[in-house]
Amino acid sequence: MTMSQAPIEAVGQASTAIPLTYRMFFLFIEPISALVGAYFSFFQPQTYLELTHAASAPLTGIPLTTQVVLQQLSNLYLLFAINEALVLRSTSDLRVWRTLLCGLLVADFGHLYSVNGLGSHVYWNASLWTAMDWGNVGFVYFGAVMRTAFLLGIGLPGENTGAKGVASSQGAKKQH
User: Fold this and answer.
1) What does residue 92 show for φ and ψ, rounded to 5 degrees?
2) Residue 61 CB partners (closer than 8 Å, separation 6+)
3) pLDDT tens digit string along 34-68?
4) For 55, phi and psi rounded to 5 degrees?
5) How far apart are CA 161 and CA 165, in angstroms?
6) I need a labelling partner for 6 at 20 to 30 A (CA). Which of 61, 109, 137, 150 fits?
7) Nearest alpha-carbon partner for 73 in 117, 43, 50
8) What is the full DSSP assignment across 76-137?
9) Is the CB of residue 81 less than 8 Å from the CB of residue 34?
10) Phi, psi (degrees; rounded to nearest 5) at 154
11) With left for phi above 0 and alpha for psi between -120 and 50, is residue 167 left, alpha or beta?
């Protein structure tokens, strides 16, 4: 295989090796969601703060430090979207997918922890959730479940579930 053939084959393999549910979520739905977060935190910071916690959002003018932090957050949302949409789209190597998704799963837990100041009810009482809570908690729960399922090998062709599936697929790669 020549170097010029590698990227084309990798893209073709990704579309057949990774199940549609995972590809739709990790390559399209979640990156688009991250871009929405990036847009609001960068271009609509007042709205972003009000949606996060209206009672503590500034009434007039956003402090400079808060503007800087929101722009940094926007950059991280953009990085998240790029990593997921472009890096995962570039390969069908399950090791790369697992590595990236494992890192994002750690970030999910950090993201969930970051809203603890809103009170413990934000984690379990969906009837009180605002639109932002649905994104910050509900959508993150769903993303974490999707990542966990992928990491466990659930639904992956030729994969056993659990850690044994990870080890056996890596052993199979070495034999080729």
Assistant:
1) -110, 5
2) none
3) 999 999 999 999 999 999 999 999 998 999 999 99
4) -65, -30
5) 5
6) 150
7) 43
8) HHHHHHHIIIIIGGG---HHHHHHHHHHHHHHHHHHHHHTGGG-THHHH-GGG--HHHIIII
9) yes
10) -65, 125
11) alpha
Work out the number of other CB atoms within 10 angstroms of the CB of residue 80.
Answer: 20
Crossing angle of the two packed helices 64-82 and 30-43, in degrees rounded to 10: 160
Indicate the burial class of 156 (C-beta count within 10 angstroms; 0-12, 13-18, 19 or more). Answer: buried
Are the C-beta atoms of 147 and 104 separated by less than 8 Å?
Answer: yes
**Dihedral over alpha carbons 57, 61, 65, 70 (to 10 degrees):** 60
Residue type, 2: T
